[in-house]
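4.2 Preliminary Data

To establish feasibility before requesting continued support, the project team ran the inverse folding procedure on a target of 705 residues. The structure was first converted into the token representation described in Section 3, and no sequence information of any kind was made available to the design step. The complete token record follows.
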């Protein structure tokens, strides 16, 4: 087919798909990286102050989250195994539009901004420790790395793209740097400031900073007594580093690479160091990216964009421009679950028939020659070996001219464990350790030869892998918007549904924290049938830093389930709820949606992140949302002031939020009194939510006249 005709056909198909998506299903990026946000809350390892020695090598295969403190200086990049397509080895460093706390950068806009950076620690390039002499340009120093623009698809289908591709102006940049020895201003330390009693401000007001002389704070939104803002309270000084541009590439389309070469998922860059002014004792290099947010004025759409993936960074001596192929066999992607139908299921519901027949391993030989490889896996239950498998050795062809290793004895080995040994415990952990390596000892990176899968059996069914690469929402094309979502689960024996877990992505201004009706249905000919349970008083919200999913408990109305059943929600507004969407685990056909009169099966590849919890009653009183009995307000309706009647132990609630019926936060504060002024609210129905130190919340409705 003529390439122009093929591209035109693709564009027309894409436009049709987008039209359908806008009317029914919507996929967006994510605004918060929960994994990184959780990492930011933990104590971080100290970074080395001593300059590193060569070689400098990181393929990001043996850790995740923040960059390794033993090699890298900052925490902006996200180390992960799920965002890239066919990386050289398991794990990449992703540069995107999210900061080190997992939030969209505060300076993010549609015009373009400096986003992430991945900066090496200082490296000793002044001395060749192998030859015990000063480093020379003739020692042939090269820095190499692989990179990939996000937004690609293994299938080529538009709606299966993972991530957001960088536009042409959204560059990936490499810079070399050195510390000058000068101490300069690098930023501010911030302190909390509580708005005092009797004080309030509107947008545009100015506050004299009590912590720093000649410093002022300009409010961009209303604040009330008890609210907390952050003010600069001290200057931060640091060592000056001078950076010079070495290499960059504009935003690219992965499809164009694959048209040139169908194996070209990542490109490798070789940078020679030929200027002796870089042969210093504090040499550094860094990657950084420029990004720009989408500017389409859709609430909840502006999110994580313009991602670049970096892999297999190497800096060493005695290299040349043809040193492209490390002697390395590696896993490329995480291996599969041992379950046929789920990524996780309750131990009480497990049966041996749930086990897979074979694994699906993605393996690669990065070298330039055929390698004699061996493979093995070992299965353990609570540290007791259940079985192992070691097939014959196999010749692994080089990826650069052959593609992925394709011998099925290694890529699709049979799962030869026939039973996991059911017992009376309420949970179990099965660990499968896979090893793919070269026979002998020339494999350069042993850490990427091993892939461990931990299979947890607890009290919930899940299709997703726990990682949200996108957001999923429903929009009804009808004048009166009504939309239903239903996820199908099947129990092997009768059980009791105790809770539904949902992952809601964070979006700008929390625009997706809207009400919905939680629903449970029976199965009727492969579609939701009779309504078994519904709760109209549910609100989309975010998990805390330790638990990404939000639990919606059925409590006294727990539902008895047999065979297949559905859990999901109903919404009668146009707010995009933005469920987490796992693009690496495909549960196509397991969920349905209805935005008109008929249930429909989605054509999207992936999994909306909704789970079903079954089994024994759950004691969640200490950490989850309290039943709101005993919490009320009066008068209700009210005009100016609400008086709060707190439940027992009410003195444990420390903050409050007022939300409108679209889930938008219209008031909030960090001090709770016996009364609350609502005179600034417009007439309408609202939710008042109190939160405690341990994450517990209570909620009640009130009407502002």
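Position-by-position output of the design step:
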């Amino acid at each position: 087919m003529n390439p122009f005709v093929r591209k035109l056909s693709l564009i027309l198909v894409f436009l049709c798909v987008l039209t359908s998506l806008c009317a029914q299903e919507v996929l967006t990026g994510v605004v918060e990286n929960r994994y990184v946000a959780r990492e930011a809350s933990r104590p971080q390892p100290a970074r080395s102050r001593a300059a590193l020695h060569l070689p400098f090598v990181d393929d990001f295969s043996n850790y995740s989250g923040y960059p390794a403190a033993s090699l890298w200086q900052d925490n902006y990049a996200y180390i992960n195994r799920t965002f890239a397509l066919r990386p050289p080895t398991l794990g990449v460093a992703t540069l995107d539009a999210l900061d080190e706390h997992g939030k969209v950068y505060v300076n993010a806009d549609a015009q373009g901004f400096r986003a992430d950076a991945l900066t090496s620690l200082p490296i000793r390039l002044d001395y060749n420790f192998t030859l015990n002499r000063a480093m020379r340009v003739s020692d042939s120093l090269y820095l190499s790395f692989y990179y990939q623009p996000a937004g690609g698809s293994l299938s080529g289908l538009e709606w299966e793209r993972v991530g957001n591709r960088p536009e042409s102006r959204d560059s990936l940049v490499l810079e070399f740097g050195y510390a000058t020895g000068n101490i300069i201003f690098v930023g501010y330390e911030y302190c909390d400031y509580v708005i005092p009693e009797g004080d309030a401000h509107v947008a545009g007001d100015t506050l004299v900073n009590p912590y720093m002389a000649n410093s002022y704070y300009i409010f961009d939104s209303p604040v009330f007594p008890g609210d907390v803002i952050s003010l600069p309270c001290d200057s931060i000084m640091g060592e000056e580093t001078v950076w010079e541009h070495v290499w960059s590439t504009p935003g690219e389309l992965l499809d164009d690479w694959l048209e040139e070469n169908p194996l070209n998922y990542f490109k490798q860059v070789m940078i020679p160091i030929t200027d002796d002014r870089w042969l210093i004792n504090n040499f550094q290099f860094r990657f950084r990216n420029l990004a720009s947010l989408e500017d389409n004025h859709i609430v909840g759409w502006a999110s994580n964009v313009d991602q670049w993936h970096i892999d297999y960074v190497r800096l060493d001596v005695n290299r040349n421009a043809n040193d492209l192929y490390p002697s390395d066999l590696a896993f490329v992607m995480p291996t599969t679950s041992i379950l046929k139908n789920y990524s996780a299921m309750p131990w009480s519901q497990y049966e041996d028939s749930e086990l897979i027949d074979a694994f699906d391993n993605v393996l690669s030989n990065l070298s330039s020659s055929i390698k004699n490889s061996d493979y093995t896996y070992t299965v353990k239950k609570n540290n007791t070996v259940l079985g192992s498998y070691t097939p014959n050795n196999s010749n692994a062809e080089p990826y650069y001219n052959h593609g992925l290793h394709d011998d099925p004895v290694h890529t699709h080995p049979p799962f030869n464990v026939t039973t996991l040994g059911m017992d009376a415990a309420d949970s179990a952990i099965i660990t499968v350790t896979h090893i793919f390596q070269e026979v002998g000892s020339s494999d350069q990176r042993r850490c990427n030869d091993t892939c461990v899968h931990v299979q947890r059996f607890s009290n919930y069914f899940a299709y997703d892998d726990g990682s949200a690469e996108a957001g999923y929402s429903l929009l009804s094309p009808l004048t009166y918007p009504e939309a239903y979502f239903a996820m199908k689960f099947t129990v092997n024996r009768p059980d009791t549904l105790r809770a539904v877990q949902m992952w809601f992505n964070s979006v700008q201004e929390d625009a997706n924290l809207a009400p919905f009706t939680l629903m449970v249905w029976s199965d009727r000919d492969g579609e939701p049938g009779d309504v078994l349970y519904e709760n109209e008083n549910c609100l989309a919200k975010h998990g805390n830093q330790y638990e990404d999913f939000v639990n919606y408990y059925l409590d006294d109305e727990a539902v008895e389930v047999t065979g297949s059943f559905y859990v999901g929600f109903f919404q009668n507004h146009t707010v995009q709820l933005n469920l987490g969407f796992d693009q690496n685990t495909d549960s196509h056909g397991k969920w349905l949606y209805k935005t008109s009169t008929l249930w429909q099966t989605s054509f999207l590849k992936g999994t909306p992140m909704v789970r079903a919890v079954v089994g024994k009653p759950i004691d969640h009183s200490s950490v989850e949302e309290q039943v709101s009995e005993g919490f009320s307000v009066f008068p209700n309706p009210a005009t100016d002031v609400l008086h709060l009647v707190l439940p027992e132990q009410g003195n444990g609630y420390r903050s409050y939020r007022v939300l409108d019926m679209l889930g938008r936060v219209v008031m909030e504060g960090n001090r709770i009194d016996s009364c609350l002024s609502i005179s600034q609210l417009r007439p309408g129905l609202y939710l008042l939510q109190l939160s405690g130190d341990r994450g517990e919340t209570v909620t009640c409705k009130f009407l502002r006249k």
